[in-house]
Amino acid sequence: KIIGALIDHFSGLSHGQHGSTRRLVAGAISVFAFGALGSWLRTYLFALSSDGVARRLRKALLLSIMRQDLAFFDQSRTSELISRLHEDVNATATATTGNVQRSYRYINSALGGSCMLISISPRLTLVSLAIVP
After folding, report:
1. What is the dihedral of CA 15, 17, 22, 27, to 10 degrees?
2. Upper half-sphere CA count for residue 104 (Cβ side, 13 Å)
3. 38, 79, 115, 120: which one has the fewest Cβ atoms less than 10 Å from its Cβ?
4. In which band, very low, low, confident or very high, does the pLDDT at 29 lie, cut at 50, 70 and 90?
5. Cα 20 from chain centroid?
6. Closest among 16, 95, 23, 113 to 54, alpha carbons compared
7. Separation of alpha carbons 107 and 6, rounded Å
8. Between the CA atoms of 27, 31, 37 and 38, what dihedral angle is there, to the nearest 10 degrees?
9. Nearest-10 Cα torsion for 99, 103, 106, 108
10. Looking at domain 2-131, does it have CATH number 1.20.1560.10?
């Protein structure tokens, strides 16, 4: 409603019913600022989560390698094991947390969009959602 009020105000459609321009602009800036803060917080927390997953995977894999017999180390090169440990763990952690992050973002967008549609026209929203399989 804030963006709509700004558009009405600057296009000349409002007749003093939406308040002052400063209040409208401050409202729009605060909406965008909260959105940016939420996006940054989500990215930061998922990066922390990814690091934690990678650390736990790396520790579990290293313990598994350390439990192997000496014959295993005679057959395998140390550099290959270290490379596998580093690359595979990072790829797995990134893929796992990246999928969770994308799913969270898509669900959040769908719920937010649905709430906005319901606030605009509940009846039209129900008709639109009834059409979607």
Report:
1. -130
2. 12
3. 79
4. confident
5. 35
6. 95
7. 28
8. 150
9. -130
10. yes
